[in-house]
Every structure is written in C-alpha cells, then in structure tokens.
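Repro:
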Amino acid sequence: MKMGHIIVTMLGMTVLAGCAVEPKGNGAIEPSATNRHTVVFNITSGRDDLHEVTMALQLAGHALDDGRNVVLFFNVKGVQVAVKGVPLRGYRQAWLVADKLAALQKRGAVVLVCPHCMKAESIAADDLVDGAQVADRKKLFGRIGRDTVVFTY
C-alpha cells in the first residue's frame, strides 16, 4: 500500500475510533441517533489492483453493519470496476465485484462514478453496474458533511 493510502487510512481509523458509539450484543457498534456518520470510499484502483478494491468493499460492508451511511466513489482507474459484465473476482475471494456492489447497494450504499474518468476509460453510463450513478457535484458533495470520513483505495 502506498504511504499516502496508509496515512489516509490511519487518519480515518482514528476519526472512526473517536466516534460516539454504543456496543451491540454481536460485537458491532451502533452509532447514537445524532451520530450517523457518512463514510466515503474513494476507489481509485481498478482491475490491476483488486486487493485494494476488495478492502474498500469489505470495509464498506463493515460501515453498513455499524449503521453508517456509505458512499462508494469510483474514479481514476476505479471506474473499470463499476462496469457490468466484467468477470472480476475480488482478490483471493470467490465473489464477483459486481455482485458485491449489488449487495452493498441493497443494504443502502450509494455507488457514484466519476464522469471524467469514465470518458478517459471509454465507459458509457449504460456500461455501469445496475444502480450506479454518474456522479455530479450535488450527488457527491451533497453527501459529504462535517463528520464524513474518507478512505482511499
């Protein structure tokens, strides 16, 4: 993992650790009613680094488990992963990336894809996995608040 990714991840984990939470019986944490933070997963890695993509999707699932709002923002090479019909399997995992995205969306995750990066990769909106939205300023920044945590993979 690149040094910048490590720093961003550690910073995000520090912020998450300081959030007011209540333990649940199953070991998960439950944010208080006034502390339902948003976690943005900024996914810049594509087909060439599925380990980073896998980590982002797994952590997104954990954030949903803990009652957090989740936004998956695919940009740079990450747009390659948000395309339907691409037979990608997660790093050392037995699931298709598209299936994992569908499951996360079903649980409430929002999937946004950078339009400029799509153009650079010759990806059309019709190529995106079901439920993915082409990002615009309002769709992305409208979900980012004062207490938002961002992980970059």
